[in-house]
Write a structure and sequence with these properties.
Layout: H1 3-11, H2 18-27, H3 31-36, H4 45-61, H5 67-76, H6 78-86, H7 92-95, H8 102-111, H9 117-126
């Protein structure tokens, strides 16, 4: 049985909940990290969401501390860098919506670090 199938049964969340599973894969990229979730007991879905939000916050703290680190990483891998900055899984269609420079993205994101990627795109395109 695959890890995702075991987790689906353990967490009582359907495999068709693609947004949830893509977020889980983003927060816990390796099978070993995902297997550790099998040993955790979450009484409610709210407990699980709380745990995921804490994990996301820890990843955000360890993301990019300086603009230079961000710009260097952006040159190497645009999609991965954007995912790390905004702490959310993104597909190629979403990342291709960004038409500005890496400096523009850093500038917008640094004003509100809780902002989602598509909100950043909207701000860049429409200024709202």
């Amino acid at each position: 049985m695959e890890v995702s199938e075991s987790l689906s049964q353990h967490l009582n969340i359907s495999l068709s909940a693609t947004a949830f599973w893509s977020e889980l894969s983003f927060l816990f990229p390796s099978n070993e990290e995902q297997k550790e979730l099998l040993f955790m007991n979450f009484d409610t879905r709210r407990d699980l969401q709380y745990f995921l939000s804490i994990t996301r916050a820890k990843k955000r703290e360890n993301a990019f501390k300086t603009k230079d680190n961000f710009l260097l990483s952006y040159k190497e891998s645009k999609k991965t860098t954007i995912e790390q900055l905004f702490q959310q899984p993104l597909n190629d269609f979403m990342t291709n919506q960004w038409t500005g420079t890496a400096e523009d993205m850093w500038s917008i994101h640094s004003k509100d670090e809780e902002m989602g990627f598509m909100d950043c795109v909207r701000l860049h395109l429409f200024g709202k």
